[in-house]
Amino acid sequence: MKYSRSITLFILLVFSMVTLVISACGPQKINVQNLLSQPIEEVGNHNFSKKYIKSGITVVYLTGSPYEIGFAHGKLCRKEILEINRPIFEYYQKLTDDSKSKWLSLSRSLEKHIPTEYIEEMQGIAAGAQIEYNKILLLNTVGTISEGNGCFAFSFKDKGSKIITFRQGDISSKTSLYKKMILYIIKPEKGHGFAAILHPGWVDGESGMNEKGITVTQNNITIEQKEWNVMPITQLSRYILQYSKTIDEADQLLNKQKAYPARLLFVSSKKSAAVFEIANNDKARINMKNGYLATANHACLIASQNISESSTTRLDYGNRFLNDNSEDMDIDKGLELVRSSKISRRWTRGVQNRLSIIFSPSELDFWIAIPPDSNYTPASYGPYIGFNLRHELYGSGDEANPKSFPAY
């Protein structure tokens, strides 16, 4: 089945419909020490799953069978699912009334390629949130139907030869998707436990790290989707995050696919990093060289007919910075890079850096930038709050060290 470019344009329009209140006084001042000193506040629970506020960030811990994970997800996050995805749910009703629309049939055709466990998880979300299953299915396939916005990711070996990975998520400044971010800590029955920043209601692996130190992030590749016998990108990234303990295992899981959703997947481990360029019938792998690796929003090996100057400029700038500072790279240098205007999109009002995460796979530490109150200040300019995956999964081990990084 082939889709029209108008589908992509519609999705971008839908996301832009969710408007934010723009502060005229700039970003809100955040007292990080106050956030860190606040006791953990549990705001909901279901069986062994729970929802809590930690250091100002909403965290949802989910465990059990796929259906149980989904049901707890839906029950604990019903308000957020309805709020964040409201424009798509509203459009869903229009689709059901339009006999000529192919949207729902396209969503159903993608469902055939979703692993059973994730279908059960989506069914659980629908039941827990009391939302029609087909609406949840549309949420979890829309990322493949549409092209995403710009993102940037890079890894480097620091002065102690540890791998550090940065994830920058960029999206329209008019959408609240990243403003309402939730940190999900998921311990499934099968595979590896992991942490991921996800949109409520989505079975996804967009930006996460598992307990083996594998990080997975999605990045737009700006290649049109032509093959539809694919596992949707949301579930494919989740599958890699849940079942890989090495980059080579991630590669093997991708090789088992008959075709691919059009995306870049940036995967890092405790030892290295790789970029997987996947689109339709094409796949290529780029490995870390000289102690660093970066990716923007275009393919470098497989054919791409839509390479923008802004994407190549961004990648070239990042590579030059990483090369020039290769001997003394550390997290502070990484922050200098992501806070530069070319990477942070500081002066780009249409698409802004709305999410920024730092991963340290060796210790399973990660730090999340608190989203700023102003639409025009990148998330990377704010303070970063630290978490340790082992601590969140099992309640054992130390917290992240350091506990935070200061605002710009």
Question: If you consult CATH, what is the topology of the domain at 148-173 and 216-234 and 249-387?
Answer: Penicillin V Acylase, Chain A
What is the terminal separation in angstroms? 47 Å
- Major sheet attributes: 10 strands, mixed
**The CATH superfamily title of the domain at 148-173 and 216-234 and 249-387:** Penicillin V Acylase, Chain A
The CATH class of the domain at 148-173 and 216-234 and 249-387, by name, is Alpha Beta
Mean pLDDT: 88
The portion of residues forming beta strands comes to 25-35%
Low-pLDDT ranges? 1-27
Using only CA atoms, what is the Rg?
A: 20 Å
Identify the CATH architecture of the domain at 148-173 and 216-234 and 249-387.
4-Layer Sandwich
Q: Give the beta-strand count.
A: 17
Helicity range of the residues?
Answer: 25-40%
Tally the helices: what do you get? 15
* Overall shape: globular
**Secondary-structure class:** alpha+beta
* Strand line-up in the sheet with most strands: 1-2-3-6-7-8-9-10-11-12
